[in-house]
Amino acid sequence: MKVYIPTPLRSYTRKKAVIEAKGETVGELLAEMNRHYPGVRFRIVDEQDGIRRHIKIFVNDEQVPDLGTPVRPADTVHIVCALSGGVGFPPRHHRT
Amino acid sequence: MSDVTPVPAKGPVLLLIGTRKGAFFVRGDKTRRNWSLSGPVLLGHVAHHLVLDPRDGRTLLMAARTGHLGPTVFRSTDLGKRWKEAKRPPAFSKAPEGKRGLVLDHVFWLTPGHPEQPDVWYAGSSPQGLFHSTDGGRTWTGVAGFNNHPMREAWCGGAGDGTPDGPKLHSINIDPRDANHLYIAMSSGGVFESVDGGKDWRPLNQGCAADFLPTPDPEYGHDPHCVLLHPLMPDRLYQQNHCGIYRMDRSEGRWVRIGTAMPKRVGDIGFPLVLHPRDPDTLWVFPMDGTEVWPRTSPDGKPACYVTRDAGKTWKRLDEGLPGRAWFTVKRQAMAGDLHEPMGLYFGTTSGELWASRNGGTSWTCLASHLPEIYSVEAAELAK
Question: Rounded to two decimals, what is the model's pTM?
Answer without folding.
Answer: 0.94
